[in-house]
Amino acid sequence: MTDPLSAALKIAGSGLEAQSTRMRIVSENIANARSTGDTPGADPYRRKTITFGSELDKVSGAQVIEVEKLGFDKSDFIEEYDPGNPAADERGIVKMPNVNVLIEMGDMRETNRTYEANLQTIKQTRDMISQTISLLKASQ
Q1: C-alpha angle with apex 100: 96 to 104, nearest 5 degrees?
Q2: What's the rounded Cα separation, in Å, for the pair 29 and 1?
Q3: Cα-atom radius of gyration of the chain, to the nearest Å?
Q4: pTM here?
Q5: Residue 68: in which H helix or E strand, if any?
Q6: Could you report how far apart the first and last alpha carbons of the chain are, in Å?
Q7: How far is the C-alpha of 120 from the C-alpha of 29, rounded, in Å?
Q8: Are 48 and 25 in contact (CB under 8 A)?
Q9: Cα separation of 89 and 83, whole Å?
Q10: pLDDT digits over 74-117, tens only?
Q11: Which of 6, 25, 135, 140 has a Cα at 20 to 30 A from 112?
């Protein structure tokens, strides 16, 4: 039988790693929200997506989270009329990234809160391990 405290650390640690990757993806999306193509009519930055999955950790026996897939949002680009832009086509239309900054900010807030929750779980589990060790020392 596996130690439940070790399993809790493993699960929360995998959550930290997954949310760290998610934060990087969200940050890239926000940073490129206005990135156009280099030439007239070229495609701009395409929003990145992340998909999570779970996997059984054979050592701890715990279900841990993992990044299953990094992908791209297939939704249409936003078209804006901006004839002075170097990326404008012959009609003056510029393809803009399919990034909605409000959605990305919401994802960032959720990612941050989930990261903090996993971090708090690790802190509490470490405290429980310390208390257990102290109790075992005191009973000897």
Answers
A1: 135
A2: 43
A3: 22
A4: 0.86
A5: strand 63-72
A6: 25
A7: 27
A8: yes
A9: 8
A10: 999 999 999 999 999 999 999 999 999 999 999 999 999 999 99
A11: 6
Token representation of residue 138: 């005191």
Collect all residues with Cβ–Cβ distance below 8 Å to 41 and sequence separation of at least 6.
Answer: 87, 89, 95
Judge whether 122 and 37 are in contact, CB under 8 Å: no
User: Which pLDDT score is estimated for 101?
Assistant: 97
DSSP code of residue 61: -
What CA–CA distance (Å, rounded) separates 69 from 53? 9
Q: Per residue in 36-74, pLDDT tens?
A: 998 998 999 999 999 999 998 887 788 899 999 999 999
The half-sphere exposure of 58 on its side-chain side, counting CA atoms within 13 A, is 0
Q: 101-138 vs 4-31: helix axis angle to the nearest 10?
A: 160
